[in-house]
Amino acid sequence: GDSVTQMEGPVTLSEEAFLTINCTYTATGYPSLFWYVQYPGEGLQLLLKATKADDKGSNKGFEATYRKETTSFHLEKGSVQVSDSAVYFCALSGTGANSKLTFGKGITLSVRP
Amino acid sequence: GAVVSQHPSWVICKSGTSVKIECRSLDFQATTMFWYRQFPKQSLMLMATSNEGSKATYEQGVEKDKFLINHASLTLSTLTVTSAHPEDSSFYICSAPQLAGGRSASTDTQYFGPGTRLTVL
Hints:
The complex is a heterodimer.
Chain A: E1 3-6, E2 11-14, E3 19-21, E4 23-26, E5 32-38, E6 44-50, E7 56-59, E8 62-65, E9 75-77, E10 86-93, E11 101-103, E12 107-112
Parallel strand pairs in A: 2-12
Antiparallel strand pairs in A: 1-4, 3-9, 5-6, 5-10, 7-8, 8-9, 10-11, 10-12
Chain B: E1 4-7, E2 10-13, E3 19-25, E4 32-38, E5 44-51, E6 57-58, E7 67-73, E8 76-81, E9 90-98, E10 109-112, E11 116-120
Parallel strand pairs in B: 2-11
Antiparallel strand pairs in B: 1-3, 3-8, 4-5, 4-9, 5-6, 7-8, 9-10, 9-11
């Protein structure tokens, strides 16, 4: 079945540091890929998505590129802020009429001032 | 973006009682809603797919008689945890996809509720 693997956490960075959170997936067909963020005390919010190979999703300075050859969707940000502290989930959605999401375990990011 | 609400945000109940959790799409209609369960420091696990006008579809290993789902309208789905026990204590989250209109379902964006923290004593 479909699966998503995220790097182990937690991750602690200083403000303005470069961020990379790795995500790889296993799926049949051509899934859509997502990054969701969960801020403390809030529900999950869609951060960015990509629906086909080589697509780049971007939002709030975050970027991720759909790499089919390496089955990856790594999240990057050039300069993190304290307000980026949250839990980040990589997810995929099956093709066709099935829009169920399969999530990775999530990783907690803490950014120090 | 679209908004999904959940009620209550937290609930504490005694073992053996039943608890109902509501999930509402506030500004769009959702023929399908999803119910997830999230354990501490773990990912979301899909429990079931709620379908308006028909029976819910449960994931393998989820007891349908214990977790009753009713999709009463195009904006409301309810999850009832029957005869709750301490091991049912968890964070329950719903989501609803907002159709992208003419695009495949896999490109729809899912909007998540803020979650309901259930504690069974």
